[in-house]
């Protein structure tokens, strides 16, 4: 079930990146990033109010848990800058490769409190195939 949810998430991300890239071509990368996050903030605020979530424990959170908000803005902005220049397919392909490499490092070294899951040599074939695909996409 979770693999299906991850697949759906990938489809939604592709649609989101595409639409935000189109918005960026109309309003510019900074304004489209702003619109994206304001609308996201309004939506999650409404959901949080409906769920009666509270902010009482925010002061107790380590600063590292606020970093994803900053990274989200940077990620969306970089997508908005890259899509008009190299297209959505290459932007998403290279981004996914970066995510794959970083997530493998996080698991291998147990970063951010993740359980250690050592990189096995069997994964090299998968990385090689993906790398070859990215190279083909870049050169064609």
TrEMBL record:
Taxonomic superkingdom: Bacteria
Keyword Cytoplasm: no
GO cellular component, as recorded: plasma membrane
UniProt keyword list: Membrane, Transmembrane, Transmembrane helix
Coiled-coil intervals, chain numbering: none
One protein family per Pfam: DMT_YdcZ
Keyword Transport: no
Record field: transmembrane: 5-23, 29-49, 61-81, 87-112, 124-139
UniProt cross-references to PANTHER family, sorted A to Z: INNER MEMBRANE PROTEIN YDCZ
Protein name from the UniProt record: Transporter family-2 protein
Originating species: Anaerosolibacter carboniphilus
Lineage: Bacteria, Bacillati, Bacillota, Clostridia, Peptostreptococcales
């Amino acid at each position: 079930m979770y693999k299906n949810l991850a697949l759906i998430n990938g489809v939604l991300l592709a649609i989101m990146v595409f639409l935000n890239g189109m918005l960026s071509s109309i309003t510019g990368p900074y304004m489209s990033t702003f619109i994206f996050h304001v609308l996201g903030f309004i939506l999650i605020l409404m959901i949080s109010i409906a769920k009666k979530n509270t902010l009482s424990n925010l002061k107790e959170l380590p600063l590292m848990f606020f970093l994803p908000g900053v990274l989200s803005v940077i990620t969306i902005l970089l997508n908005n800058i890259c899509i008009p220049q190299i297209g959505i397919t290459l932007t998403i392909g290279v981004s996914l490769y970066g995510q794959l490499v970083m997530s493998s490092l996080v698991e291998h070294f147990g970063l951010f409190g993740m359980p250690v899951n050592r990189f096995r040599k069997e994964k090299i074939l998968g990385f090689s195939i993906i790398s070859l695909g990215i190279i083909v996409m870049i050169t064609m």
